[in-house]
Write a structure and sequence with these properties.
With 226 residues, the protein is α+β, with helices and mostly antiparallel strands. Helices cover 33% and strands 31% of the residues. It has six helices and 17 strands. A hairpin with a 2-residue loop joins β12 and β13. α1 runs antiparallel to α3.
Length: 226
Amino acid sequence: MLLTLPDILNTEELHQARQALDDAPWTDGRESAGTQAREVKNNQQLPHDSEAAQAIRALVLRGLDRSPRFFSAVLPLKVFTPRVNRYRGDSNAYGNHIDNAVRVLQGGQRVRTDVSCTVFLNDPADYDGGELVVTDTYGEHRIKLPAGHAVIYPGTSLHQVSPVTRGERLACFFWVQSLVRSDEHRRLLFDLDMNLLALRQRHGETPETTALTGTYHNLLRLWSDT
């Protein structure tokens, strides 16, 4: 499921993020890439423990906590520590690749990368190119969102960031291990949850919404892995 999440960061939080990036210590993004990805990765990243990375990470995680849509679509169990990257100049693209199936947190805990997420930190008018291009059975999806908006997509997807030919593209990215491993099952649960919400807003609580809520939770109980 490919889904956009509006306003994960508000205007004030975006301002704080951009302030944190002033004089930030950017490094070669290939340092964190696997053997295959290193061949096509050409960007910059903030060191994992830098003050700027920690400040932006905290803003993004708080924003996600406020988003019912994120929780409903992803059903997060574990979140890999968010990272921050930049595309510009000669470090301006990331070719086609599929993310590693498992990432390891600093404490050694493993995170299965069921869902990938990118939070855009600057506006599309700031740069040319730089689209996130996700390829699936329906073809290519080119994503370039306003600052503060996010996109989620299956970690199994072939994807790339097209070359930035003007300006710079700033983003925060991370992976989530979901309670529900299957993307198809997550999509069904999300659709059911969104339609239940719409029914409640239109008719209030009814015997039918109560019964369908039970169906939702029974499916979640059937498919979840904690």
